[in-house]
């Protein structure tokens, strides 16, 4: 598989790994999202000192207000975070 195909497969696998823990394999609960962020994106949370960061992220991701984060909502988050990282690295490379 190509690098991009591998990255897409890994995104799906990570979502599925955490989504299955509460019985609903199609969505992430707040607890599942918290576990995913703590294990898979530890630097994302460690950089902030906001104690309510998980609640804020969850609320922003849950676009349809069903108290669950579905795969589409999760992928939009990963894409947005990837865009931010890309911009950060571009700015630092220019210095």
Automatic annotation (TrEMBL):
<dbReference type="GO" id="GO:0048306">
    <property type="term" value="F:calcium-dependent protein binding"/>
</dbReference>
<keyword id="KW-0677">Repeat</keyword>
<dbReference type="InterPro" id="IPR011992">
    <property type="entry name" value="EF-hand-dom_pair"/>
</dbReference>
<keyword id="KW-0106">Calcium</keyword>
<dbReference type="GO" id="GO:0043542">
    <property type="term" value="P:endothelial cell migration"/>
</dbReference>
<dbReference type="GO" id="GO:0070062">
    <property type="term" value="C:extracellular exosome"/>
</dbReference>
<dbReference type="InterPro" id="IPR002048">
    <property type="entry name" value="EF_hand_dom"/>
</dbReference>
<dbReference type="Pfam" id="PF01023">
    <property type="entry name" value="S_100"/>
</dbReference>
<dbReference type="InterPro" id="IPR034325">
    <property type="entry name" value="S-100_dom"/>
</dbReference>
<dbReference type="GO" id="GO:0005737">
    <property type="term" value="C:cytoplasm"/>
</dbReference>
<dbReference type="GO" id="GO:0046914">
    <property type="term" value="F:transition metal ion binding"/>
</dbReference>
<dbReference type="GO" id="GO:0005509">
    <property type="term" value="F:calcium ion binding"/>
</dbReference>
<dbReference type="InterPro" id="IPR001751">
    <property type="entry name" value="S100/CaBP7/8-like_CS"/>
</dbReference>
<feature type="domain" description="EF-hand">
    <location>
        <begin position="49"/>
        <end position="84"/>
    </location>
</feature>
<keyword id="KW-0479">Metal-binding</keyword>
<dbReference type="InterPro" id="IPR013787">
    <property type="entry name" value="S100_Ca-bd_sub"/>
</dbReference>
<protein>
    <submittedName>
        <fullName>S100P protein</fullName>
    </submittedName>
</protein>
């Amino acid at each position: 598989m190509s690098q991009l195909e591998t990255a897409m497969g890994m995104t799906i696998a990570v979502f599925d790994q955490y989504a299955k823990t509460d019985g609903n394999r199609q969505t992430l609960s707040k607890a599942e999202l918290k576990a995913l962020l703590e294990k898979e994106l530890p630097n994302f949370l460690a950089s902030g000192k906001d104690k309510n960061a998980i609640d804020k992220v969850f609320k922003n991701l849950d676009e349809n207000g069903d108290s669950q984060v579905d795969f589409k909502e999760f992928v939009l988050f990963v894409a947005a975070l990837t865009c931010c990282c890309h911009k950060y690295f571009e700015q630092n490379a220019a210095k």
